[in-house]
């Protein structure tokens, strides 16, 4: 029997996780509380570091597409005296190349890489039980063999173990 896997949260982490699972022929469902991919603006830009975000995008097979969209902005910094405009400090990148990408572009890249129907929109999670049962905001329930939390700072998944 194929295990039922749910990723809670359609942000960069959850979508990247789903992509890597699908690349490895694992069925996955992403549960997202937003009603649609364009329900809200996705915010500013992200710096993707070579030892974390870029590694994840390489594992997801999306590194080249990311680099085509990314900007190598802000890789050096200068500090000048506010009165004299004299250069006080000039720092060049330390080898950690961390290009920026707009959050919306990254989300679109990740969404487009997933099999159709992977993301279930409008599925706000209220709680996750210790056996993988998810209680949704509309009071429906569903059980998964594995629940992966990618739902941010106020994670419902992190609080798993509460009674559903």
UniProtKB/TrEMBL annotation:
It holds the Pfam family FAD_binding_3. It comes from the Bacteria. Residues 5-160 form the FAD-binding domain. Coiled coil: none annotated. The keyword Oxidoreductase applies. SUPFAM superfamilies: FAD/NAD(P)-binding domain. Keywords: FAD, Flavoprotein, Monooxygenase, Oxidoreductase. PANTHER family: FAD DEPENDENT OXIDOREDUCTASE DOMAIN-CONTAINING PROTEIN, MONOOXYGENASE ASQM-RELATED. This is FAD-dependent oxidoreductase.
């Amino acid at each position: 029997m194929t295990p039922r896997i749910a990723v809670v949260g359609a942000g960069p982490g959850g979508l990247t996780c789903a992509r890597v699972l699908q690349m490895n022929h694992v069925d996955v469902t992403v549960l997202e509380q937003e009603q649609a991919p364009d329900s809200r603006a996705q915010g500013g830009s992200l710096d993707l570091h070579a030892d974390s975000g870029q590694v994840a995008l390489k594992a997801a097979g999306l590194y080249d597409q990311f680099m085509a969209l990314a900007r190598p902005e802000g890789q050096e910094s200068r500090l000048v005296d506010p009165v004299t405009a004299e250069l006080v400090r000039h720092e060049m990148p330390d080898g950690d190349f961390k290009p920026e990408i707009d959050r919306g572009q990254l989300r679109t890249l990740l969404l487009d890489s997933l099999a159709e129907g992977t993301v279930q929109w409008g599925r706000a999670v209220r709680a996750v039980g210790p056996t993988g049962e998810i209680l949704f905001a509309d009071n429906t329930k569903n059980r998964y063999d594995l629940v992966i939390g990618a739902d941010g700072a106020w994670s419902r998944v992190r609080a798993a173990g509460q009674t559903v």
